[in-house]
Write a structure and sequence with these properties.
By secondary structure, the chain is mainly α. It has a single domain, classed as dinb family like domain (Four Helix Bundle (Hemerythrin (Met), subunit A), Up-down Bundle), CATH 1.20.120.450. It has seven helices and two strands, in the order ααααββααα. A two-stranded antiparallel ribbon has the order 1-2. α1 runs antiparallel to α4 and α4 runs antiparallel to α7. It is globular, with a radius of gyration of 16 Å. The two termini are 26 Å apart.
Length: 187
Amino acid sequence: MKAHFERMARYNAWANARLYAMARALSDEQYRRNVGAFFGSLHGTLNHLLVTDRIWMRRFTGEGDHPATLNAILFEDFPSLEDARKAEDARIIRYGEGLSAEKFGEHLDYSTTKGVPQRNRLDALLAHLFNHQTHHRGQAHTILTVLGNPEPQSLDLLPMLREKGATFGELSQRDAFKFVRNFPGEV
């Protein structure tokens, strides 16, 4: 199970790097245009993903800042948001690598953003973290299409494996951090 979540963290960084590269190609007006998505624009959607990752990482680690609302705009400018995304992806990778195999079966007590107490197994919460990312990256992909990109790059797992010429188990920590470090360039 540990290897699975380490791989998902690496995939998550790769998919985010690809998404941010596509977003970087937009004009500021396109990037901020309200297209009727749940968080309005690509700007709102990307900020939401960072907000929720920070909320979950705070719950997991007890460290880090996060806002109290899910629609908070953490960064108004794209370069600062991109830098923060890169740092958060690296943090998620390090967190997964630091977990013992036994930790995944442990329960975590936390409260929702509305203060409702919850208790779930860590493995289920990590699955939720990555599933939530995938859900909103799908929305971001649709936003790119609405904005005139007829065929945004795939954010699926298999294209990453094909691109890297590797099976999931062959992706190393070095490769994962290369994805994160090379955010501004080709992934």
